[in-house]
TrEMBL record, chain A:
Residue stretches making up the ABC transporter domain: 4-243
MF terms in GO: ATP binding; ATP hydrolysis activity
InterPro entries (alphabetical): AAA+_ATPase, ABC_transp_ATP-bind, ABC_transporter-like_ATP-bd, ABC_transporter-like_CS, P-loop_NTPase
Taxonomic source organism: Paenibacillus catalpae
Pfam families on file: ABC_tran (PF00005)
Family, as annotated: Belongs to the ABC transporter superfamily.
Protein name: Nickel transport system ATP-binding protein
GO biological process terms, semicolon-separated: transmembrane transport
Keywords tagged on the record: ATP-binding, Nucleotide-binding, Transport
UniProtKB/TrEMBL annotation, chain B:
Principal location: membrane
The ABC transmembrane type-1 domain, residue ranges: 73-262
A Pfam family it matches: OppC_N
Species whose genome carries this gene: Paenibacillus catalpae
Domain of life: Bacteria
Protein's recorded name: Nickel transport system permease protein
Keywords attached to this entry: Cell membrane, Membrane, Transmembrane, Transmembrane helix, Transport
Bilayer-crossing regions: 12-34, 77-101, 122-150
UniProt xrefs under SUPFAM superfamilies: MetI-like (SSF161098)
Amino acid sequence: MLVVDRVNMSYRKGGMFSREKQQVLKNISFQYEQGECLGIIGESGCGKSTLGRLLMGIEKPERGTILLKGEDIGRKSARKGRISAVFQDYTSSINPYFTVEQAVMESLNMKTSSRKFNQSKVDHLLQHVGLEPSCRYKYPHELSGGQIQRVCIARAIATESPCILLDEAISSLDGSVQMQVLQLLKKLKENDKLGYIFITHDIKAAAFICDRVMIMRSGQVEEIVNIEHLNNVQSPYARKMLQMIIN
Amino acid sequence: MKRFHYLFKDRLALLSVFIITSTLAAGVFAPWIAPNDPEEVHMELRFASASWEYLLGNDHLGRCVLSRLIYGIRPSVLWVLVTLAISLGIGTIIGFISGYFKGKIDALLMRVCDIALSFPGYVMTLAIIGVLGVGLENILLAFVLMKWAWFARIIRTSVMQYSNAEYIKFSKALGVGSFRIMWKHIVPVSLPDIAVTSSSAFSSMILQLSGFSFLGLGVQAPQAEWGMMLNEARQVMFSRPELMLAPGITTIIFVSAVNFFTDALQVALDPKLMSVTKKKQGKGIYQAANLHGKA
């Protein structure tokens, strides 16, 4: 469904007239099938989040193509209703001037603009992610981190897009809440046939939810491996990383 | 924009709105409200004290001070408001474009702003008056030319700060159009910033215009203007201080009302700042319910 072909990305270093560039992504290629959960693992600064921004079409790759069902992901019409996202920083993931209802309505309105129909759907969605319907009139600063992340998930599934990109979506939550959100994601995946692209530095979380993981190192794909074969990874870097977790 | 009703729970805000709207209305309907002709000279009534016919007394030419004050709203407030709207409009458009799209267009627009800002404001205004001649419209033109870049700078910073937020990223990922994102997300969030800067600019423009009129470079006699009234009353500052106090106090009251109003607006629009009052109300209900339970 999503085909990433030889993607390169670099950012300009220094001022306006500087020609020096920093290569962030080198020759990245992989495919994502509908309904699967692909984990993207790597250390901080290895280009995970940059890749995430490219996959959402917010930025354009320098070279290479990203096709979503055969269309360039940079085009708005190609993305509409096909990809959605949940982010790391829950303090800024909902507009502070929006109530929960308005935030969820934004993505519902992308599908149909019938207000009444959408408003009735908000309660259903909130229940679906384990929130009380009374939350709908609250502002984000009145909710806890876990609750906001649940609202973000509700907002992401409201678009009914088959693929949701989770960029470090659980990293800013504390242990027990992380687990609750992971379980929610797993449940949604099984019930609603959702697919995720799960960007994280947490191998355990990835092992819990993903079907395949892609290990990244300094802007390159180190290895792509099915989760059941995670124990016998080939590349030395991936081995070392796993070793460190097990110890 | 559903939050405007919160504004009217604040008494000071309500008072400020009342002062501002009644001043604007008095300015617009000056010919019907003013008791006398503001330019009619009565030499026999020079420096007369307050009377029923002339509620605030008469000035050095025997003109009605109250009527002059009311007619003075037009250049001092209404025209300044128009000027503010024009320069704020230009500044907002440029600020949003460069803050949201960033990159080359931002660099280009900001260098233009830098050039505009590198001229010292007062000197530039004096230069424009020197070239185009003395008069209200030339000062206002100078204000527009000098202020837009300043607005653009401030609004750009505010927009830039919010345009990196993750809710903007989310909307972009969904494929929402840029202008819709700006209108739905960034305009409400940056509105308090815009309101506060424009109110302080409004106050300073009123004071500056009064200053230029005081120097004799703005509105020309016999037309009424607050700064010029101050200037005319200067000679009799100690013998007849009320002639100076009338325009002085009016200016202070109006400028303060504008400042209080925008402060209240900022609080009313921001759900985070508002929640304290809301919680207090909630607590009251809760306690009442408790009492009820005991009875």
